[in-house]
Fold these 2 entries.
Entry 1:
Amino acid sequence: MTTLGQISLWLALLVAAWGTVTGVLGAKRGRPELIQSARRATYALLGLLAVAAASLIVALVRHDFNVAYVAEKTSRNLPTVYTIAAFYSGQEGSLLFWAFVLSIFAAAAQWLTPRRYEPLMPHVAAVTSAITGFFVAVMVFAANPFTRLPFTPADGSGMNPQLQNPGMVIHPPMLYLGYISIAIPFAFAVAALISRRLDTGWLHAIRRWTLLSWTFLSIGITLGMWWAYVELGWGGYWAWDPVENASFLPWLTMTAFLHSVMIQEKRGMLKKWNMTLITLSFMLSVFGTFITRSGIISSVHSFAESNVGYFFLGFLILTAALVGWLLWSRLPELKTEAALESALSREASFYFNNLVLVGIAFSVFWGTMFPILSEAVRGQKITVGPPFFNLVNIPLGLLLLALTGIGPLIAWRKASARNLQRQFLVPAGAMLVMAAFLLAIRYSDFYAGVAASLAAFVVATIVQEFWRGTTARHRLHGENYVLAFARLVGRNRRRYGGYVVHLGIVTYFVAFSGLAFKREMEASLKPGQSTSMRSPYGHTYTFTHVGVSQYERLNRFVTAASVEVSRDGKPLGVMSAEKRQYVDSFNRPQFNPSTEAAIRSDMREDLYVVFAGSVAGTEEAVYKFTINPLVWWVWYGGVILVLGGIIVMWPGTGPTKASLRRALPGYAVTLASGTGDDA
Amino acid sequence: MKARTRVLIGGALVVGTVGYLMASGIKDTGVYFLTPSELAGRVTADPSFYNVGVKMGARVVHGSIQRDVASQTISFKVTDGTQNYPVVYRGLAPDTFTDDVDVVVEGRLMPDGTFHATTLLAKCGSKYESVPKA
């Protein structure tokens, strides 16, 4: 099977090169047969990479340990779901995953994009083929998933226990789907640049793609937080680790892009900026893949272990140079069509929102790369950690939260005093009431207090919008409130879905502010002994050690320590935290023992219990207890956000589509003449 | 023109704030990342470098780990091949912390030559290369 995979990869490399050349040449010379060939190359890539992916999965499932990748990532007793997940858990496999998924997206883009964007498609095919070709080249020349060993081991080395978690099965693919799907809007941007079709056509073509990748990224990041929280056992979900930061960076620039394209669509402004943002997002998503895979930053090892890093570096430099040159040569065509009329306007608020988002991205990038930068510039390696990121990003994040409330409500062009009063009187009141309430209860953390007050402001703006829209429909169309609400959202999905996304973001902020009230305690307890701890809400939790038990499971030995928990004297049940020793099929230990925290969640706070070990083989256990307020809301913020994203993306039969249909001849003219403006 | 100027001033304020926060963040929270040899060189050159917060990246000396579960203290030796330092750490060690792994310890070198660590990070062994996380 691996021979088939090998052949597919080599063929994919050739087809990718062919698709790139024919796409560009075909469009330039106007040769339909070449254009058709480029399009077919995109579909052929999908077929070839599907075969390669299937070969690797078959090798994994059949436990073909003669294949180096299979031997390194799995073992005979690994549950099947993780054996399949090993497809993307290592470097070589995840490169294949990247290329394969990109070929799916590229084919979908060719297949699904409406005919009116036809002139862009050969270039899109060229760009997606080139990117796919890059990933295939890295596999073929540096990190081949089908490399065979000179011998066949009896069993593989197994999977890192930290990866054996349901979250780990879906988190990397989600994140990758986000990273990879950015390539499609990027391809359209480059296509618009090459073909000089720089009206808003390409922006309309990628609306759903952009939001799709943004939603995948959000899900991926949130699942990553969840995985870190339940699996790593340190009691938190975000540590400003380089790999986490790498996933956050494209999310930030994509968020900026989602907002600034609205300015270009409505007012024909920020054209160069939007090109820059989408290119940056694509490069950061490749950088994210690269940083995860090369260990260039987090590892104390040098990155000489694998030369994959140089491929990525070269690819990033090439991308930047190519897009930079295209932008430079098309500058006159990217002139803004309107001037900013007022500092109090939707345009200005989006401009500030973009500055803050890119500012956060820059500071996160700077902080992540600082050890490398300081060593290169001053010869001294200086590192910054969570205190740096919190110091910089908490104030910026709060500024962003305020703009989340202001942006959607402030008028386009120029906000009048009347507009400001009508939109912000009630929300500002809500914010003041919240602030007064927090002062009254002596809320002890300044930033958490500001976050909660701003959250009240933003939620009030959103509720006000839904309320006004619903009551207006009720009055005008005589619909009952439920129907009016449903139609309001259904017929303005982009706007009201956007509000729901904002609600999700507010929920995250509120959840993050809970971190200010985290409590931790360590205790060594003999059976029957107990210890207690006060929660930030004033409850007293008592933990009574029950005992330590040992048992065997599927592919691991488990040592579990149990505590009885009670809140203010009322029993809440038993929590069992585990130490696991994973073993191979010959019962030989693999990896270090791993920690499995016990977590009890409710809307107000989480109890997080870690079993650190028993004292000299007795039943006396050392525990770490953590009380984490509001963690629950991180996960539910994610659910709300995704719901909002789905509302915006939902393909429907509402007036949106009808208006698009009406606009169709207009677009055709626009594209044909290449000069029109449909803003 | 007036609107444009106002917005530019606002933008300059945002950029300035980001710059200021970053500069002060690095000044206040940045710490040196040193190998044991570099750390030894520093304290020889300037004894006031004892008791300064630093990060040290090194490898755990095989068989040097001593755990006292009751007091949650872990003592071990780290090396970069030429210079060794004994490290004392109080707290829970990560699952990946074991003999011969690369660790990053953050803390202070005491004048008695022991390194008092407040955080302990262990890198995954080469056996499972880079762990995809978060």
Note: The beta strands of chain A are 382-383, 519-525, 530-534, 540-553, 556-567, 570-582, 594-596, 598-601, 605-614, 621-629.
Entry 2:
Amino acid sequence: MILVWAAEAVVLVLVVLGILVEAPLALAGTAAAGLAALVLVRVRPRLRAALAGAFAEHPTAALAGGAVCALALPFALRASPYWTFVATLALVYVVIGQGLNLQIGTAGLINLAGAAFAGLGAYTVGLLTVSAGWPAWLAFLAGPVVAVVVGTLLFVPILTTRGHYLALVTIAFVFIFNVLMNNLEFTGGPQGIKNIPTLRLFGYAFTTAPTVLGIALPAHANFYFAAVALAALATGVIRRLHDSWLGVALNTLRDDEIAAKCCGISIARAKLTAFCIGNFFIGLGGALYAVMVGFVSPPDFDFGYSLIMLSVIIIGGVDSIPGVVLGACLLVPLPERFRFLHEYRLLLYGVVILVMLLYRSQGLWPAAVRRYR
Amino acid sequence: MSLVETRGLTVRFGGLVALDGVDLRVAEGESVGVIGPNGSGKTTLFNALTGLYRVAAGTILLGGEKVGDLPPHRIARLGVARTFQSSRLCPNLSVVDNVLAGMVAARRTGLLDAVVRRGRVRVEMREAIARAGHLLGLFNPELPARGWERVGQLPQIDRRRVEICRALATRPRLLLLDEPSAGMNPEETAELMKDLQIVRDEMPGLAVVIIEHDMFVIEGVSQRVIAFNYGRKIAEGPFAAVAEHPEVREAYLGKDTVRA
Amino acid sequence: MPPLELLFQQALNGLMLGVMYALIAVGFTLFFGVLDVIHFSHGDIYMLGAFAGLSVLTGLAAAGVGAPALALPLAFAASIVITGLIGVAAERVCVKPLARSSPLMTLLATLSLGLVIRESVLIFYPRGADPKPFPWLLPQGSFDVGGVVIRYENLAILAIGLAAMVAVDRIINRTRMGAAIRAVAQDPEAAQMMGVNLDRTVDATFFLGSGLAAVAGILSGLYYSEIHFIMGVTGGVIGFSAAAIGGLGNVYGAILGGLLFGLVQTMAAALIPRGSEFRDVVAFAVVLLFLVVRPSGILGAKSVERV
């Protein structure tokens, strides 16, 4: 147990240092320490086995420790509202990623419209609050519902066709969504929807800077904690579905549709289920983004962002639930840290994904064999 | 009443007639072999019976009910299971997962249970895993221990066994085996015949129809043999009779070798 | 209801656009027919063709070769070769190695390759983010036929596009390589047993498809008088849609699909209020409708999967 918590503490310290340290010498030192830790784990099989065994033996302790680390992060980052925001954004991508992974990784459904479904969630929040005067929390709950409904309307007609038709339909949808958001008046056109009122829960406005345990945190920390809860919810739900009959059915139909049919699995129903549940979480992420940022506009939800969501899944690990978390936590903060690479960001994503697909297609945290614990 | 009956079953692909007015019957618990040269319509028959191919003409009756236009998953739930010529397992899933695929359709817990009432799901999964282990153990006592390995890593004979277990996991009334001994050497074929005997012993009410090219297997396993050629049934009866049938010899060996 | 002449004019426009889309669509359908893959970076290859053409034209102009009659054919030829080779390289890098894995992997790989190509042009081409003006090399002016204005430019584009399509038809139906392509599309194993070199045929297919995309790219530049690094994204989606509604795997279907898409776009722009903003939406909506009603496409798709 101590080993598990020690390992998590080391990771947390390295991450925080990596984010906050500016002085070149200290930064180099942190990078070296991180690299050394990685190499050590790769190169010393006994250490790796000990760690793996410890995590396998104490899953609840590991989870608890992870939760503590996640909740402690804003305290370490309290001097930087910007990085608190980035951390929250990473968690938003975890929520979206888990949904998208259920569709693409587990069920093999090619959904290239992740950005559009997130956009549906976000725009629903914006429209309901600004144009229809709904309270933010209600609009927030409506966002994912809209994403699911629209997704269903899109998918049902082509439910029985081959995989690449879904790819085509979703690409076309992302474009249609973008054009519509840009050109319809009630969606605010190219400017989008501004001044989305912030979330208020039981009178507590999320824009007030909280003081937790006597320490003042930036206002974004509210959203951070909410995002932790939602990311935990998404990961937990998806994991439970994955390790149950639905997961078996989806994996089987992903790998061999004909065999699945002959086992009595209803392909159409399983695919639709995966698509809807996935879209729910993608829409949820979009809705969270809208309340967090306070405005939505068409360029935030274009095809490029679908590709970024895709990279999170591929790099983390297709059909791998911890992989999505890893992918999001790497892919969102890293480009912010290496600002000088910002121009090359998408190019690097593309190259990394290509290289990964060619040489390590299972991702950084490959999907493990299902264990039904 | 037979378990499965086809009347005038015809399957066409454009201009090609793959099955031409086939009448056959399989009774409960019967073991039937299907032979014929390549392209004679044997696998097409299986595909039609399992609903993968559309029936152009004729009827298929399962337990007296017409099933010709049902989708494959409905026919599977009515008790028709099959294995495939090129084994269609999911290589990256575990052995247990592959067998569990056969039990998905009969599950009792749903999505809500999976998320909220985890206890129920755990119980049902434990039962299912135990049953999978039992099925696997029938054929190879070492298999259950390898249950959590990815099935692609197993030797071919064990993979065939996993496929059969998956089919049996659906609790079928009719089991269709498509060339199970393909690619096997004589030792493996002997193992396979023992496996088929285990199936017969374990589930005496199960009707088995087996497509094979290896006459040794057919002879050892079937009570009755049906021979196909060019989509038509050309002979039916006990193995010895069918093997001597002039049309069957002609189909396999050519016109010149048939004795007058 | 706009006057008949306007509609006719738009229809002509639509045909012209359609010809360009058809050239991209043929590539998609060839790749699907031969390798069973959706080559998602094909749209960006189309963009590369346009940029290659522009570069060649700029170079020729700098070298003093400005005459359209000389510069244009040279640009076409050079761009076809360059883009064709890049297309083959793309296939070797990210399609062939993944031939054995699931189609999902190939799709993701080609998507990423497209991203890499796009971003590379953005970053490495001088001032890549700006649309680049394309020189006016086609005969200017127009003539009037019963109230319909027909511009020489558009006729030229139509003619070049049709010539390219005829060339494709000849190549596929009258050459040995074309026969090889058709054979591999029907049954790769049987084709190999007949002595067809699979690798070389696949290379040839990609060269052909990419070359056609290059022609489409230059035509697009000539028509819009500008090219932009992002043109491949829309071009690719349109090309894929056109190939799909025509029936993936059928070259004539792709041509038909492309023409149809162009016509729907321009007709929507003409007939619907604010149509020019929504023409893409309408066209894609028609595509979606097609996929629902007739997923195998107008001229039917490839054969059934073997069980």
Note: The CA atoms of residues 42 and 236 of chain C lie 6 Å apart.
